[in-house]
Design a protein that fits this description.
The complex is a heterodimer.
Chain A (H helix, E strand, L loop, with lengths): L5 H6 L3 H33 L2 E9 L3 E2 L2 E2 L6 E10 L3 E4 L1
Antiparallel strand pairs in A: 1-4, 2-3, 4-5
Chain B lengths: L6 E10 L4 E11 L8 E10 L3 E8 L9 E11 L4 E12 L2 E14 L2 E10 L13 E10 L1
Antiparallel strand pairs in B: 1-2, 2-3, 3-4, 4-5, 5-6, 6-7, 7-8, 8-9
Classes of the chains: A alpha+beta, B mainly beta.
Chain lengths: 91, 148
């Protein structure tokens, strides 16, 4: 038996299967377009900000006078983005 | 996920109020990943003058995840001693519902290249132990940090 060619495989599909395949292609194209848009917006969002941050190691983590780690070591990191010198987001 | 992971997410506005003055208004989410989450959100407003002195007020409808409103008033002062060394004092009062306690810190920081070494002493009103969340009212904390 020889190799199955593409048109041979397609010929066994029903019209419903073609419709589903076309719908799947459209969904994948839509997802790719959405993903590209999100990436573009995300990269623009990241590029539009001035980013600063720090990392820290400490012997304790005291929040408003209270040790939240029962005198244990803490590892902290922070990053902040500033947009138009006014709007800030951070973690 | 470790039990003691805390993630703080914040957003807001930071703007000038004169050549040596800045005001910051933030909403901060305190997130604790894990099944025993007691996340909470706090709003705060602060003002800083000359990058050396400042004060803030914070309020949360369910501070510390307790279901009780909390608010805090804080102030701080940073005084450079040399180009690489500075001292700082800060403190405040924190209210959980109508019960409040004070706390404070005095610290000295030394910059070495891109690293900052800090040694601070913390004091807290011993009566906060009524809340059962700590068993010391004083402690030293040493830290090393770097900015990027």
């Amino acid at each position: 038996m020889g190799p199955v060619r593409n048109h041979d495989r397609r010929s066994t599909r029903t019209p419903e299967a073609f419709a589903r395949a076309r719908a799947g292609v459209r969904l994948r194209r839509l997802a790719a377009a959405c993903g590209a848009t999100v990436l573009a917006l995300g990269s623009g969002f990241v590029a539009a900000a001035d980013w600063t941050g720090y990392g820290s190691i400490a012997s304790d983590y005291v929040f408003r006078g209270v040790s939240l780690l029962d005198s244990g070591p803490s590892f902290q990191g922070s990053v902040e983005g500033r947009f138009d010198d006014t709007f800030v987001v951070g973690a | 996920m470790p039990d003691h992971v805390e993630l703080n997410l914040y957003t807001g506005f930071d703007f000038g109020c004169g050549s040596q003055c800045r005001i910051r208004v933030l909403a901060t989410g305190y997130e604790y990943p894990g099944p025993d989450a007691h996340n909470w959100v706090e709003t705060s407003a602060s003002i800083a003058l000359f990058e050396r002195i400042g004060a803030s007020f914070s309020w949360s409808p369910h501070g510390l995840g307790t279901g009780t409103s909390t608010h805090a008033a804080e102030a701080w002062l940073v005084q450079p001693l040399t180009r690489q060394t500075s001292v700082a004092i800060d403190g405040g009062e924190f209210w959980i519902g109508s019960n409040g306690y004070w706390y404070g810190r005095a610290g000295i920081s030394q910059r070495v290249d891109r690293w900052v070494f800090d040694l601070s002493h913390y004091w807290s009103d011993p009566k906060y132990r009524r809340f059962g969340i700590d068993d010391h009212s004083q402690r030293f904390v040493f830290s090393v940090s770097t900015a990027f």
